[in-house]
Write a structure and sequence with these properties.
alpha/beta; 5-stranded parallel β-sheet; 10 helices; globular
Amino acid sequence: MHEQTIIIADDHPLFRDALRQAVTGMEGHPDIVEAGDFAAARKSVGDHPDADLMLLDLAMPGVSGFSGLMALRSEFAGLPIVIVSASDDATTIRRSLELGASGFISKSAGIDDIRLGIQTVLAGDIATPESYRDGQEQDPDVADIIHRLHTLTPQQSRVLTMLAEGLLNKQIAYELGVSEATIKAHVSAILLKLNVDSRTQAVIQLGKINMAMVA
């Protein structure tokens, strides 16, 4: 039988302990891999390509807001990602799911609820807090941006999240192992799909999705 591997990506050691406690108590005692920042989280998925699930904190060093979720979704499309966040308002939950999360667990949840959420996603369903009531995106601009983001290819999504981190074309080309001309072509395609004229405007559009999480 396949032994399960669960990646816990959170920069707070105390909360990682709580998540580890929830996972350890599960049937089969899954292997646990921990990461304390976004770079480590990304590396841990590369090192464990057969991982069954990632628990990802939205607010981690090295990434802002939903950018981390988008980057991991584009790079590791087959890995179920459950967002774990203290920002557990309906807007943050809905946008997490719309951007590819397989579930959402509030940081205020108890161990049993965390465990149930993890088991729900491992069983192939979407996990959300009991209090969550699905609804339509209230901001039509954001709904349009999310729709446009869904039209990006995985590589374009990665390039956009790197633009948001402030990387230059040559830095992105180096990171992705492609030519600078290829990155320029990706940037042109991103601007076209997002209906903006500059890299700065593209990053601003991405930032609008994160506005709900500022609190």
